[in-house]
Automatic annotation (TrEMBL), chain A:
This is Xylose transport system permease protein XylH. Residues 1-12 have a biased composition (Low complexity). Its main location: membrane. Coiled coil: none annotated. One of its GO terms (molecular function) is transmembrane transporter activity. Residues 1-30 are annotated as: Disordered. InterPro entries: ABC_transp_permease. It is a multi-pass membrane protein. One of its GO terms (cellular component) is plasma membrane. It is found in: Cell membrane. The keyword Nucleus does not apply. The chain crosses the membrane at residues 34-57, 69-87, 94-112, 118-141, 148-169, 202-221, 251-270, 285-302, 309-325, 331-350. Keywords: Cell inner membrane, Cell membrane, Membrane, Sugar transport, Transmembrane, Transmembrane helix, Transport. It comes from Streptomyces adustus.
From TrEMBL, chain B:
It comes from the Bacteria. Residues 1-21 are annotated as: Disordered. Keywords: ATP-binding, Nucleotide-binding. PROSITE patterns: ABC_TRANSPORTER_1 (PS00211), ABC_TRANSPORTER_2 (PS50893). Residues 25-265 form the ABC transporter domain. Coiled coil: none annotated. This is Sugar ABC transporter ATP-binding protein. The lineage of its organism: Bacteria, Bacillati, Actinomycetota, Actinomycetes, Kitasatosporales. It comes from Streptomyces adustus. GO terms for molecular function: ATP binding; ATP hydrolysis activity.
Amino acid sequence: MNRATAPAASASPPAPPAGRTDGRGTRRSPVRRLLARPEVGALIAAIGVYLFFFAVAPSFRTAGALSTVLYQASVMGIMALPVALLMIGGEFDLSAGVAVTTSALTAAVLSFQFTVNVWTGVAVALVVSLAVGAFNGWLLIRTGLPSFLVTLGSFLILQGANLAVTKIFTDNVASDSIADMDGFGQARKVFASEFTVGGVDFKITIVYWLVLAAAATWLLLRTRFGNWIFAVGGDQDSARAVGVPVDRTKVVLFMGVGAGAWFVGMHLLFSFDTVQSGEGVGNEFLYIIAAVIGGCLLTGGYGSAIGPVIGAFIFGMVNQGIVYANWNPDWFKAFLGVMLLVAALVNLWVRRTATRR
Amino acid sequence: MTVHGSGPQDAGREDHPPERDAPVVELRGAGKSYGNIRALHGVDLAVRPGRVTCVLGDNGAGKSTLIKIISGLHRHTEGELLVDGVPVRFGSPREALDLGIATVYQDLATVPLMPVWRNFFLGSETTRGRWPLRRLDIEGMKRTADRELRSMGIVLDDLEQPVGTLSGGQRQCVAIARAVHFGARVLILDEPTAALGVKQSGVVLKYIAAARERGLGVVFITHNPHHAYLVGDHFSVLRLGTLELAADRAEVTLQELTHHMAGGAELAALRHELAQVHGVDVEELPEA
C-alpha cells in the first residue's frame, strides 16, 4: 500500500521509512475492490434467485409476474431505504413496521372524524410520523440506551395505541372508509395509482422506490450529511471529536424512517380506503433483513442505498416466486431466514477481505 | 497582547525575540477540581510556535486533565487559560478548534471503515455547486488530501482504501496531517506513541518534528521520556496534579528527565526504606 517514494519538494518532511516496503504491502486488486462494494454479494444472490425461479416456475417468466414482484419489492423497499440509512448510522428502529400503520390510521381517523379534506389528514400524519421519529432519536440521545431498547418501547407503545385509539373512534379494529371524502381520488392518484408500459400495469410505488433509492445514493455518497451518516455509524466518538454533529445526524435519520413510514402508510391507506389497526407488526424485521441482505453492516458504518433495493427485490422475488412455483407459501419465511444467514456470512467475509492489511 | 514576561517559563529565555516567541496558548496557575478531588493545581505552561512542549507524567498525574482543559473538553476551575494572550474559557472542542487548537487523540482519531480522503475531510467537507445540486468536491478533496499527506511524507497509492487498513502509526499521521491542514496552530497529541511499536513510534516522532518545522506549537503528551527527549524543546513533568519540573532542553538531561518521571524524591525515600529492610547502607543499592 505504501511505496518509499521520495517525499514532495518541501524542505522539512521526513522520508517514508524504507521499512514499509518490506514486501508486505500490496496494492488492492481490482477484484478485491469490487468485492468491497457493499451490494455486490446481494447482486449475485439476486441473479441466482431470479434464475432459480425462472427455471422452476414458468408463470414467473411473464411481464405480469415481474410487475407483481416489483410492486411487492417497492412497498417494502421504500421503507428499507431509510431503515438502511439508519443502520449505516449505527442504529435500529424496531417501531418502523407499526409506524406505517400509525401514520395511515392518523390520516384515516382524523379525516373521517373531523370530516376534513383527506389532504389535511395526510399532512397531520406526516407531522405525527416525523414526530415519532424525532422522539425515538431524542430518547436515544438523552438516555444513551441502545436503540434496540428505545425503539422496542416505542414499537409496543405504537402497537397498543394503534389498536386502542382506533377502537375508541370506530368500535372496530379497522378505521372507517374515507373513500367518499374530499380529495380521496386526488390522493389516490398520487400515492396509489398505476401506469401501463407495453400492456402491463405497474404500480406508481415502483417509480417512487427507484427515485428515492437514487436520491438516497446521492445523499450517502455525494453530500456532507452522507459522510456524517457513515461516520456516526462507524465510530461515533471519532466523529464527534472532529466536529460532526452526531446527535443531529441521528435524529434526522430517525425522522427519515418516520417520513418513509408516512409514505408507505399513505400508499396503503389510498390503495384501499380503510386501515386494519393491527397491521405492520413484524414488518420492521423485513426492512432490516432487506438492508442486511443488501450488504449494510448491522453494527453500522458500512452499506449503500442500492443494496437494500436489491434486498427488497430478492424479497419480492422469493415471496411471489414461491406462489408461482405452486409451493406451500409457508416456506417463504424459512427461505428468507436462509437468505439472511447467507447474506450475513457474505457480509462478514467481504468486510474482512476489504479491510485486510 | 499582554503576554510576554509574566509566566515563570519566560525566565532565562531572552535569547528569543518576544514577537515570534509569544506563546499561542498559555496556562497560568491553572487547575481543575472534580467535586472535592483536585486533579490539577497551579500549573504553568506555555506553548510557543515552532516548538515541541512535552508533558510527561505517570498515570493519574493529571496529563489528560491538562489536555482536556486546553482542547476544550473541560473547563478549568482555577487560574487562567490564555490564547494569544487573551483569557478564554472553552465551552466545547469546536471553540478550541476555531482558535486553531487541534487535538489528536490516541484512539479516536479516525473512522476505520471510511476511505482515507473521507476521513481526512470528515466534519469539514468541502462542497461545490448550488443546492439542491450541492455536492461533495470529491476530486478536490482527494487532491488536497494527497498533497497534504505527501507534504508530511506519507504516500498512499489509493486514497479510497479504508483507514482501517493502515497501520496504527499511519493512522496517527493521517490525523496529524488533517489537523495541520485545517489550520491548527497548536497541535495536542495525546500519547501518540503509546500503542505503537518501536518503528511506528519513530514514524510518528518524525511527523511531530515535521509539524514543528511548519511552525506549529506542539504539545506532546507521553509517559516515555526517551520519546520526549528525541523531539522536545521544553519539558513539563506532572506529578499528583502539580508541576514537578519545567525545564528547557538545555537545562535538563535525559537522565534527569527519567529520574523525575520515575518519581524523583519518592524514589530516594524508597531507596532509604529498602536499605533499612535489607540492612545495608543506602550507597550500596543501585542508582535509580
